[in-house]
Amino acid sequence: MTATETGARRTLPGGSTALVGEVPELRPGRAQWILDRLSHSVVWIAGLLSVIFLLAPMVIIVIASFNRAPALDVPPRQWTLSAYANISPALYEAFVLSLQLAAMAAALSVALAVPASFWVARTRG
After folding, report:
1. Are 73 and 92 in the same domain?
2. What start and end residues bound the annotated signal peptide (predicted)?
3. What pLDDT tens digit does each residue of the chain (125 aa) get?
4. How far does the chain reach from its first CA to its final CA, in angstroms?
5. What is the DSSP string of the chain?
6. Are residues 81 and 107 both part of a single domain?
């Protein structure tokens, strides 16, 4: 009979025991903790850089829209609202239509999502 068949146990580093021949459960040590924290930080940094990459052009356009000069000048030397005062009627109508569609989409999504969330909470709870 072998030690495994008789149930012989051995003491592992850290004080735990295991059957002879059994592979002990690996516990994450300091190196694993450092890798976990590092990967978590890398994901957060990548996400933050992605958001900055997506939002930076929009911020620059909004800032440039207050410029008195016809060419792109960031930061503007003279601030003005003249670009917004001289909006063409077609552009204004398109803007109003976009706002109306956004309001209808928001209202429809709330009207569908609230009852759906109650249904999910009641059927799974």
Report:
1. no
2. none
3. 444 445 666 666 666 666 666 655 555 576 777 777 888 888 999 999 999 999 999 998 888 888 887 777 777 788 888 878 888 899 999 999 999 999 999 999 999 999 999 999 999 86
4. 53
5. --HHHHT-EEEPTTS-EEETTPPPPP---HHHHHHHHHHHHHHHHHHHHHHHHHHHHHHHHHHHTTBSSSS--SS-SSB--HHHHT--HHHHHHHHHHHHHHHHHHHHHHHHHHHHHHHHHHHH-
6. no
- The answer as to whether 70 is a domain residue is yes
Domain range for 49 is: 29-86
Assess if residue 110 is contained within a domain: yes
The reply to whether 93 and 52 lie within a common domain is no
Tracing tokens 């996400």 back to the chain, one arrives at 47
